[in-house]
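ok so i was messing around last nite and threw this chain in just to see what happens. nothing serious, just curious
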Amino acid sequence: MEKTNDPRDIPIKALRPKTKGLISDLLNPQTFISTPDGIMRNWQGLAGLCKINGNYEASLVNNPDPTSKVLNLWQTQDPDDSTIKQFILFLEEMDRFDVVADIDELIDEDIRIYRENPQRPVVKPVSLEADKYIITTHDVETICQGRPLENYDAFLLYDEDDSDFAIQVLETMEKDYNMRLCCKGHLLGGGLEMDKVITLITQRCNRVVVILSDTLFKSSVNDYLVRFTQAFGIASDTDRKIVPIAYKDVTIQSVHIGNMYILNYKRMLYFNFWDRLRDSIRVGDIDKMKLARSKPDKETTKSAVNANNDYELKPLHQAVQLNNLDAINRPPSNLSTSADSKEEKKSGLFKMLKEHLKKEKNNSVKQKAKKNKQFYKKHIKEATAVAN
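result:
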């Protein structure tokens, strides 16, 4: 397309994230009334006018920000004609004069900034391949700025009833200790929540901080995530994957947490809780070597995902079951609480292991007896046939 003297006849890449965000807010919502020419008045109509390949339809429908993706695709497929001027013409053709009016001042500001420094770094369009890796709200910003996805110091798991304390943990660790934490509240919409959490735990979070409460393990999802994390930590040899904390009196109902040391917020008189939490999350040199060595191969993740899933919460991963997880997933008859003495915990652990070994021995004896029975039965049948 021949360039003109129109100040808006510049590449659409000149739009700042602030402007593109407003455009997305206005065009993302579903509309049901089309123009007289049959053009949809939302991102679907824009995709048609931009002549986006129909192969992208499914990915656009499932994308949390389809408008931004349409603009990125248009910029990639048609760099010469993807201008702000043409975009405004498309909006007018869609009868979206309201959008034109709302973004008018922002666009003029974008053009001014672009013309003052046309060589400035601009937001690069997100590649279609990178789109599937965007899980959290932080990822959108880093991807658009061309930076690699960051790893988190920890994933924070908590019950909604404990959200006030969870917010305190997030703000304190990030502002005072310069640590990066994430939680379910940072997840983007679309896709399976369980898959996203498991991806974060296994690939992008060094630890999982669990805020203990009486309601936490009433959720089968939370209980499963704790058991999965414990199994994954054992399978990948990372040792300290879970960091349990408590800020009120709780009755521990999980064998995975019952035998762990729990950081208690109420004991801040005896030590600095936040310093201790930072040290517990922090990954030392030895831990870094283990994490690097165990950056999850597919079999480790698959094994942990399927480890005795009593609640049938199966993410998309196909799984191979870990061996000998009975001792992990079957709670002992005398479950210890955070207030138990060390001797009681040790006694409970030995009792659990003893029962496990006894069960294994009984199973072995039964299998041997069954095998002998089948052996004699076979030979008795053959001897009877010969006698007849």
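not much to say yet. Residues 307-339 have pLDDT under 50 and may be disordered.
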